[in-house]
Design a protein that fits this description.
Length: about 375
């Protein structure tokens, strides 16, 4: 199989779909790897690193799309990239389709086979290709929030950990999954006053056992959420419904109860955001203010630490890349129900139920394409 990777073109996105080490692994399996020139510079891998791994350097993305049987990326393809997809071509990347009707339509129209990292599952019910980026985003959400709280960046002028004689900042984390857990690790490490909200008793028990007195846990109902948001200096939105649009948990009315200069960091923005006032921002212009509350809604937070993120991502995507390349997408998906759950769009049909429901498409099960 010919497998291609291209330079990411989203604002300040420095990750790359394939490391030189991944390229070497695929070449060792007898496949041909095409890499757009300069695609790996953001992680410190130049063209020579890929050539040493056996890959062929291609001067522009269009030629990669034209020649590759499978295109491996990090972020969802932008409009110019979607226009280069063709019938039957495999696209393996993050897609986050539920809040993105334009992308979904283009992928349906392309006839491509689109496998989304974020809906591939594992035997424990987890999302193994989303997990490493959720870990990075959760940890970075505290970095971003702490910086945004500085007065010069529009915040209240709060140091999250405080100092002797001065109370620490209050952090409210909505969602106790991978993002929330990692955010709490960072926030408690800084000495902040941390509260984590979740609706699962099992998750709350796990968090309570792990953090003990270093973080408080509360059941996430309307009253508790409203109280925590009102008291917080920093709110982290860390909710996830796999493949579906994020629920809007923090309403605009709640902003009026928050202190001026408080900060919201919406890690769920890839799925539409969990704050009513959220809109996607970029690393070059990351914040905006609504009713005195600073919003940080960067849609590719892990791109800021591209090398760490790329290697963490390739650790989990490479085995799937290899199986798809070795066996073809139909056989690979037929043999692995968890990889099959990643199929979101195929041959002009939407094959992920939550996406079909949220965007008004007829749902066609992935099994229909695997006979």
């Amino acid at each position: 199989m010919i497998i291609g990777t291209v330079k990411e073109i989203k604002n300040h996105e420095y990750r790359v779909g394939m490391t030189p080490e991944s390229a070497a692994e695929l070449e060792a399996h007898g496949h041909s790897v095409l890499v757009e020139s300069g695609a790996g510079l953001g992680i410190g891998a130049d063209d020579a690193h890929y050539e040493k791994a056996g890959a062929t350097i291609i001067n522009d993305a269009a030629a990669v799309f034209e020649k590759a049987d499978m295109v491996v990326k990090v972020k969802e393809p932008l409009a110019s990239e979607r226009a280069m997809l063709r019938d039957g071509q495999i696209l393996f990347t993050y897609l986050h389709l539920a809040p993105d009707p334009e992308q979904t339509k283009d992928l349906v129209d392309s006839g491509a086979v689109c496998i989304a990292y974020e809906t591939v599952t594992d035997a424990s019910g987890g999302l193994p290709l989303l997990k490493p980026m959720s870990q990075v985003a959760g940890r970075m959400s505290i970095h971003a929030g702490a910086s945004t709280l500085e007065k010069g960046n529009g915040g209240r002028g709060i140091l999250l950990g405080g100092v002797p004689g001065v109370m620490p900042g209050k952090v409210c984390i909505i969602g106790g999954g991978v993002v929330g857990f990692n955010a709490a690790q960072m926030a408690t490490g800084l000495g902040a006053d941390v509260t984590i909200l979740d609706r699962s008793p099992e998750v709350l028990e796990k968090l309570g056992t792990h953090f003990e007195a270093r973080a408080k846990t509360r059941f996430s109902n309307s009253a508790n959420l409203a109280e925590c948001v009102a008291e917080a200096d920093l709110v982290i939105g860390a909710v996830l419904i796999p493949g579906a649009a994020a629920p809007k948990l923090v309403s605009r009315a709640m902003l009026s109860t928050m202190k001026p200069g408080s900060v919201l960091v919406d890690v769920a923005i890839d799925q539409g955001g969990c704050f009513e006032t959220s809109k996607a921002t970029t690393h070059s212009d990351p914040t905006y203010v609504v009713d005195g509350v600073v919003h940080y809604c960067v849609a590719n937070i892990p791109g800021a630490v591209a090398r760490t993120s790329t290697y963490a991502l390739n650790n989990v995507t490479l085995p799937h890349m290899t199986r798809i390349a070795d066996n073809g997408w139909q056989a690979a998906l037929k043999a692995d129900e968890h990889l099959r759950n990643g199929l979101n769009v195929c041959a002009g049909k939407v094959t992920y139920e939550a996406v079909a429901r949220d965007l008004g498409y007829d749902y066609v099960p992935a099994d229909d394409f695997l006979s």
